[in-house]
């Protein structure tokens, strides 16, 4: 029959599969073949593709947050200070595959592909709420600064993926980061 996988082992395999082959190609069958098990084992822990994709995106987000948490100051004055602290930690080849999966999810969400168009906005809201905790002031101000931080970081990292690291580094320098 093969190895009996735990939910965490299956999720880790799903993250690896998504990062290596893309989120769009993440299926129960492909993941089962990658793990050497039956797709019924996958479905036992993740009854729908939506559940699997959601948990994969959350796991990727948690990994990215752990990279960022070490780079961020306890509190930041504004989005520029936060982006300046984050960019060097994120402009790392080791993190690039995680961001490639993140940007793929964003593209699929923008194209209204299920389940990405449902999951991505919730994840973006969770990221903004997490980032807002690093700022001081009113809830409205912290939210605006968190959104601005996301816009700056995402723009730079998208440029890194599409135009290359040097172009993104030049843009970060021009932005004063």
UniProtKB/TrEMBL annotation:
Q: Where are the transmembrane segments?
A: none
Q: Does the keyword Transmembrane apply?
A: no
The HTH tetR-type domain is annotated at 4-64
Residue ranges of DNA binding: 27-46
PROSITE patterns listed in its UniProt record: HTH_TETR_2 (PS50977)
Recall the GO molecular function terms of this protein's record. DNA-binding transcription factor activity; transcription cis-regulatory region binding
Keywords, A to Z, come to: DNA-binding
- InterPro entries named among the record's database cross-references: Homeodomain-like_sf (IPR009057), HTH-type_TetR-like_transc_reg (IPR050109), HTH_TetR (IPR001647)
The question of whether DNA-binding is a record keyword is answered with yes
Protein name according to UniProt:
HTH tetR-type domain-containing protein
């Amino acid at each position: 029959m093969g190895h009996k996988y735990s939910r965490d082992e299956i999720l880790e395999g799903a993250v690896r599969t998504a990062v290596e082959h893309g989120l769009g190609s993440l299926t129960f069958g492909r993941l089962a073949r990658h793990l050497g098990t039956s797709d019924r084992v996958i479905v036992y822990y993740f009854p729908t593709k939506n559940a699997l994709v959601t948990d994969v995106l959350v796991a990727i987000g948690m990994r990215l947050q752990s990279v960022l948490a070490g780079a961020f100051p306890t509190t930041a004055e504004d989005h520029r200070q936060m982006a300046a602290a984050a960019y060097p930690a994120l402009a790392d080849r080791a993190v690039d595959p995680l961001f490639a999966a993140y940007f793929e999810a964003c593209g699929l969400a923008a194209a209204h592909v299920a389940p990405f168009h449902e999951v991505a906005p919730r994840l973006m809201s969770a990221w903004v709420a997490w980032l807002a905790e690093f700022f001081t002031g009113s809830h409205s101000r912290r939210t605006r600064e968190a959104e601005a931080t996301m816009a700056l970081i995402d723009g730079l990292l998208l440029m890194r993926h599409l135009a290359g690291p040097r172009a993104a580094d030049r843009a970060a320098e021009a932005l004063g980061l």
